[in-house]
Amino acid sequence: MRIALAKALMQNPDVLLLDEPTNYLDLEARGWLEQFLLAYKGAFLLVSHDRYFLDATIREVYELFNGGLKRYPGNFTHYEEVRAVELKTLVAAYEQQQQEIRKLEDFIRRFGFKATKAAQAQERQKQLDKIVRIEIPESLKKIHFSFPPAPHAGRLVLRLQGVSKSYDGVRAVIDGLDLTLENGQRLVVAGRNGAGKSTLLRIIAGADAGFSGAVVPGEGVRTGYFSQDSAETICGAQSVLDYVESCAPLELIPKVRDMLGAFLFRGDDVFKSLDVLSGGEKSRIALLKLLLSPCNLLVLDEPTNHLDMHSKDVLLDALTDFGGTVVFVSHDRGFIEALATRVLELSPGRFREFPGGYRYYQERLAAEQQGASAVPERRAAAEPEAAPSASRLSWEESKRLQAERRKLEREVQRLEAEIAAAEERKRLLEQRLAEPDVYSNGEKARQVQSEVAAAAALLDGLSEEWEAAMERLS
Fold it and tell me: CB burial class (10 A; 0-12, 13-18, 19+) of residue 250?
């Protein structure tokens, strides 16, 4: 897949069509692709479920909903804000319509078979048949679930002592790694593809015994492990619904249908046989099965693969509320930033720990590139601390740049709101031109046409300001 993506980029086409281009890319490769697209001279249209990547690369969103396509200028965050307001209105109309439908259905049910009311019931049925049903997105159907209570464990969950792993007896992927995990921590393992992230997770989960050193679990630790290979265990003639219900604790069985919906099994999908599921569908079932099992240490290797944004949000909420410890690998930066409380960076034969979230980790890397002191690698001699004045200078410069960026982001948001308002005004004015009392009256028509031209000029000016602000922001 990475070769296919590279081939498409190297053709230098006028238009790039990218369907989930960040799949199978690590964070460094995603960052490179972001910069490539920002500098790209042609046009590109992409589908992605990675919020951070979308915010970094796009300037407009097209939403496909109920067979229609609608354009939203701005980045993905702005689209979500504008769409939230629209959906609030849509939900209100949906609830009002549902109330009307319930009244009609109730009348038909009560009086449909009474001779004295049959005509009225038929009239209500005609009204019901004429209603154009309002549909709302699945993402509005709020689904939240909690893990089964985590079994009690002590403060110390896991200790790795001098863990080393080599392939072919030559290439050391992990070399002398020491790590202590405490209850409640959410550790993300970061590093390039091939740095040993998945290998480390297999060792922690007890799925790989071919290493030297010691892995010492704490008292009462129960581990749950998810990897992309977990899908291989999902098979048989059993339906998806029956299988998941058989895995769920008794108290969660009433919520199984909702949870399956959150993991993209909706409608008749829940009655599919396990044997006919695709690899991605089986992977989602394996993840859901794990989340339903009582444990206090979750080891998750790329849990957001094959999930859409709504499903990621449901999973993130559940993991954030989870009472145990989480060790995970992910290439979804937004997911990492929202979940991780600690970072372990792996590179071949080396490792470094950062006792903060992923943003702090990124700030430290940026500071290192500017010459500030680095976090010492645990398998190398500690580098001398940079002079306080240099560190202070880089910190102040970083804060200044961040403040300027926030100011530009606020300016972009203001312009996007004004553009949306100007587009709406222009649309309403154009509608007025089609009204009989306007097009039949020459003076009124000229006045409205003048207002349309003014609105178009304002829109052009705002668009130019927005493009200039986006250029400075990028």
Answer: exposed
Q: 113 by DSSP, 3-state: which?
A: coil
| Terminal CA-CA length for the chain | 28
Report how far residue 296's alpha carbon sits from residue 302's, in angstroms, rounded to the nearest whole number. Answer: 19
What b/e string do you get for 187-209 counting C-beta neighbours within 10 Å, with b at 16 or more? bbbbbeeebbbbbbbbbbbeeee
The residue type of 44 is F
Q: 392 — phi, psi (to 5°)? A: -65, -40
Give per-residue pLDDT as tens, 210-257. Answer: 888 899 988 888 998 998 788 788 888 889 999 988 888 887 788 888
Q: What whole-number distance in Å separates Cα of residue 374 and Cα of residue 365?
A: 8
pTM for this predicted structure: 0.64
What would the pLDDT profile of 32-76 be if each residue is shown by its tens digit? 899 999 999 899 999 998 888 999 899 999 998 878 899 999 899
Side chain identity at residue 169, one-letter code: G
Eight-class DSSP state of 196: S
Are 235 and 217 in contact by the 8 Å Cβ rule? The answer is no
Residue 93 burial (10 A CB sphere; 0-12, 13-18, 19+): exposed
Give the β-pairing of 223-226 and 43-47: unpaired
